[in-house]
Amino acid sequence: MSAFPRAIDGEPRRPGVLRLGRRSFDVHQRLVMAIVNRTPDSFFDRGATWDEDAAMERVHTVMKEGADIIDIGGVPAAPGAEVDVVEEIRRTVPFVAAVRDAYPDVVISVDTWRHEVAREVCAVGADLLNDSWGGCDDRLAEVAAEFDAALLCAHAGGLPPRTRPFRVAYEDVMADVLDRTLTLARRAVAAGVDPSRIIIDPAHDFGKNTWHSLEITRRLDEMVATNWPVLVSLSNKDFVGETLDVPIDERLPGTLATTAVCAWLGARVFRAHHVRQTRQALDMVSAIRQEKMPARTVRGLA
Amino acid sequence: MIVSTALCPSPPLLVRDLSGADPAAVELRQACATAVAMLIATAPDMIAVVGSADRTQTWPADAELDISAYGGPPRPRVGRPAPLAVGLGALLLDEGGYTGPRLLQSVGHDEPLSACVELAAEVSASAARVGLLVMADGTARRTLKAPGYLDERAVPFDAEIQRAVSTGDLTALHGLDQTLARELMVTGWSALQVLAGTFCDREPDTKVLYADASFGVGYLVAVVMAAKEDPTEPGR
């Protein structure tokens, strides 16, 4: 706990264990956060797991594919039909409870910016509050502290939830990312969140055009150097689509290339639709970095 | 005099972590450990490791395998590196808990038969009771997926090595043709010639612990002992 106040004075934190729920992850472990949407209209899956049985089936699948974290969301990022607190709770809380029941040890994350929702999901077993809209509800950190949950501190460029970037401009996008995410982390610690349960996220495409998302990818080492664990959420996003000029269903290669670069630069958590492929990309990077054994090597050694 | 001999192959993957997370070649490693344990159990005054290498040389007794040339996880630098076959033999002795005197000897791939026989005599004379660990592989052309692709002469070549060792007819190893051995990518020919010269007129007990070519390379693990040295007999 004492390491953090020095960090905000400009001295480096030491890289450390990330605690999520009952589990601890060291700095060389690369975690896959599997996206499970409880929405009828999210951009990639287009409601494939709106049905609760389908959603639970997806949980079973991603667990088999090597997911470390299940990220449950009840509100799409894009603008659209209003989802109020009551409806968001209806979509997420029973499902969080069901996943916790099925998998007592898995890390459960909930993608929400609302403290009312956060309180309800933590009460039924959520371990991580994925505040991808960057701290627009001050009381979210209080809920994380109250339940000893983890908190994601993301950079949304100051945009309100569910809004699109419109002519966003940064003098230095990474400086802004660092400023906002570290401020959120500092506030979280002040609110009583366990510092080993705080993650920072540059939030690709949130409040950023494609150029900005490419730049934060290229400069991700600057975030990693803060020694807060870094999460990246890249999966099938528009910056991949615009960069490669490909529609949503052809963005996996670009997603995996970006995943590998971020892993190489030190990101520790990867939010993804394609769990098996992401796991393989990360395992490959880990083996190249000598942080994981290859599965089986006999060629040329017999 | 040589009282006991163990024969093991010398692939890099004898080193456990070179095969990655999968403990490939478990049975081979186990057989080698057993052979070396049996060798140590005969309580020799000294154990000599003999393996084929680029040249004939006696290595410092504390020389060790420098496996980093073959890859694997990061590991400390080796101060006194020994060539693969000799270094693997030293490693097997270490893993077997042997701390007694040791002689680490390589024998050049291109040594003529006579030089190999001479070396066998020298090793034999180096102590009253010498234990010998010969590190030698068979052919590397046993199957289509073998390192050297399939050569139909490989199976009979390895079979003859196995026959000679399993029957204690070690001098028959002198009959293995050096040129053919080279064509079949036999890396252990010269070490096998040293083995051939060890028991001379004595009729040893032998036991084959492993004989297979699961990666297309002929591996033979065996122990050869003077009859009264069998460590499994009562009183020893």
From TrEMBL, chain A:
EC category name: transferase
Pfam families linked to this entry: Pterin_bind
PROSITE patterns reported in the protein's UniProt record: DHPS_1, DHPS_2, PTERIN_BINDING
GO CC annotation, single: cytosol
Domain Pterin-binding: residue ranges: 30-283
Similarity field: Belongs to the DHPS family.
Entry function: Has very low affinity for the DHPS substrate 6-hydroxymethyl-7,8-dihydropterin-pyrophosphate, but can bind the inhibitor dapsone. Seems to lack dihydropteroate synthase activity, and does probably not function in folate metabolism.
The name this protein goes by in its record: Dihydropteroate synthase
Natural source organism: Acrocarpospora macrocephala
From TrEMBL, chain B:
Protein name (Swiss-Prot/TrEMBL): Extradiol ring-cleavage dioxygenase class III enzyme subunit B domain-containing protein
